[in-house]
Design brief:
The structure is a homodimer of 369-residue chains. With 369 residues, chain A is an alpha/beta fold. The first copy, chain A, has two domains: 35-228, Alpha-Beta Barrel (TIM Barrel), CATH 3.20.20; 246-364, D-serine dehydratase-like domain (Lyase, Ornithine Decarboxylase, Chain A, domain 1, Beta Barrel), CATH 2.40.37.20. Chain A has helices at residues 16-33, 47-50, 66-74, 91-99, 111-115, 141-150, 171-194, 207-212, 232-237, 269-272, 339-343; strands spanning 11-15, 36-37, 39-40, 61-63, 79-85, 103-108, 122-126, 154-159, 201-204, 221-222, 247-257, 262-265, 289-292, 297-307, 310-315, 331-335, 348-352, 361-364.
């Protein structure tokens, strides 16, 4: 049996039991609210990780690329939402999937996109809820639906995403973001119904709002993706604790600069990504927190800086702990700021159980577009 | 023949003629200084791109991962420097390459690493020149060399890297960084020679110092990698102009937010990386400049923000140009901040000629470690 001491560093370790616990927590919450989860696979990009969600049974999913759609379709997933505004030159791949029996729904927010759709393709209309991305105002949704109907495409409903929730400060702000996301989506659905469209799908979601929603009346499905792994940005917002982080980067100590208080590793930004998402939060974790190979955090130690293949571990600004004694060759685990970005730097996961170094599986990730 | 209108976006376009011109410029400069180029392949990670350097003939290279070393060895490159401090558990792969006849040199800066080396393995001793990474002080190099000799490993010389040069402000500062980098390396080599070691290799380099060095007396080789592609950080430092950028991200317009002055594309941070390296420079280019598919820049247009698969194009802060009219489906090219980080988000290059949309080759990139 391989262990975390064996693979060449840097690499990703994923604790499957933590993933399952994160999945259970959100699943129970959404069950209580009477809505379906349509998990977003953009963070984990792994059929094997997704199988932890519903005991391996294919379920409705959201994808961020057609490459994800194609890989999940090949694995038996047949209810797929491609939640990035559709570009017309991607339609041949959409049709190829639909011809294989996949119920692939696209997303759009303009008449130009709507009239480019082939007949029979279902689309959700993107609705803006907080000015962070695309989307029409709820009252403009019927115009897009009429354009869809005019070419024989299928206006299936509405979608919104509370991008603002990633910047929310405190539980009240998160609950308000979730309520606002629901309100905007439901408003748009009501506008569609008033115009004679059925709008059976009312889709909302982000990892923060999915966890903080208290009433999703009128919503039919919730999208969330980050929640399976979580990360320091989510912990900083208060959606999870650091103990809920399921994915870490394993790196090896390659040097020391006692004059600077540095421990150098072979895990640079190529292994963690350039994401410094906690820099805008109350506690800046720099490139991440640092644990030993068994997962125990070192007090006040952060990955303070990075070049392409070098990480610099140091006591955080204002930290009082002593720099730990980590000889050359010691392996450590970096807890990342942003699981989506860190995972994207790697091609596979090494799967472990809590507190164990045994690697019981290696799961591939989906790459590219 | 495929063109830039054909591949699914986002993808990378590389202009091979610009790469060749960048290679020629540095080659001539280093020829004039009487030193050898040991190109760093960490930016381009492509045997095909490296072949533009020396008319396809294998030449000395620097690598940042053993995966690069293995791929280049398979392509006939036999003089390879692995320029990240060696971790003992990577030695089996080092020895496997050496057993195949590859003259692979490792890097280290401690007695602990030195005494872990098997007999016969050559090593450069990393010397700190400006406090940005690892490395011993020049006067401490003999201690590491003695440790190498004690186990029968081969102290081949010294290496330093002017990490500070990426933050240099102006030509005088760049020339000073280059002179300092040389001075520190030569000091260390002299210390080794005074202690009875031959130190045949004196290796320096970074893309900024390689271009701004005016006297490399005592240096035997220069390392640089970014210079083949260049990027907006290098243009901001003054090492190149924006016209010298050889690599761009091609993305497609997927929406508009006239109320916000935004054009949305399908090129998010997954396509560009999270690198905001120009944020610390005089001109913050955000996620990059924007050109049309033929390479003509749009005035004042930047990729202002990004989520995973969405880019937001907008007129830069203080810009006076009008937002261009780019309908849904229009393809644009994003000029990146940091070529190393942006290229790492992709698995291949689409190779074009200047001012042409014809794709005359698709070249794979080396991934992982």
């Amino acid at each position: 049996m391989s262990t975390l001491d064996d693979p060449g560093t840097p690499f990703l370790a994923v604790d499957a039991a933590v993933v399952r616990a994160n999945a259970d927590r959100l699943g129970k919450h959404l069950d209580g609210l009477g809505v379906t989860l349509r998990a977003h696979v953009k963070t984990t990009k792994s059929v094997d990780v997704a199988a932890l969600l519903h005991d391996g049974r294919p379920a409705p999913i959201t994808v961020s690329t057609l490459a994800e759609a194609e890989a999940f379709a090949a694995a038996g997933y047949h209810d797929i939402l491609y939640a990035v505004g559709i570009a017309p030159d991607k339609l041949p791949r959409v049709l190829a999937l639909r011809d294989r029996g996949v119920d692939l729904t696209v997303l759009l927010d303009s008449v130009a996109q709507a009239v480019a759709l082939p007949a029979g393709v279902p689309a959700l209309i993107e609705v803006d809820c907080d000015g962070h991305r695309g989307g029409v105002q709820p009252s403009d949704a019927p115009t897009v639906a009429e354009a869809l109907a005019s070419v024989g495409a299928v206006p299936r409903g509405v979608l919104t995403h509370a991008g603002e929730s990633y910047f929310a400060d405190g539980d009240d702000a998160l609950r308000a973001a979730a309520a606002h996301e629901r309100d905007r989506a439901v408003q748009a659905a009501l506008a569609l119904r008033a115009a004679g469209f059925e709008a059976p799908v009312v889709s909302v979601g982000s990892t923060p709002t999915a966890h903080f929603a208290t009433d999703l009346t009128g919503v039919t499905e919730v999208r969330a993706g980050n929640f399976l792994f979580f990360d320091l940005v989510m912990a900083g917002i208060g959606v999870c604790t650091v103990a809920d982080l399921a994915m870490t980067v394993v790196a090896t100590v390659i040097g020391h600069r006692p004059d600077k208080g540095w421990i150098l590793t072979d895990g640079g930004w190529m292994a963690t990504s350039r994401d410094l998402g906690t820099a805008r939060q109350r506690v800046d974790q720099r490139y991440g927190l640092v644990a030993d190979l068994d997962g125990t955090l070192f007090d006040d130690l952060v990955m303070a800086d990075a070049s392409q293949e070098h990480g610099i571990l140091a006591i955080r600004a204002g930290g009082t702990a002593a720099l730990p004694d980590l000889p050359v060759g010691t392996r450590v685990r970096i807890l990342p700021n942003h699981a989506c970005a860190t995972a994207a730097q790697h091609d596979r996961y090494h799967v472990v159980a809590p507190g164990s170094r045994a690697v019981h599986a290696v799961w591939p990730r989906i790459r590219g577009w």
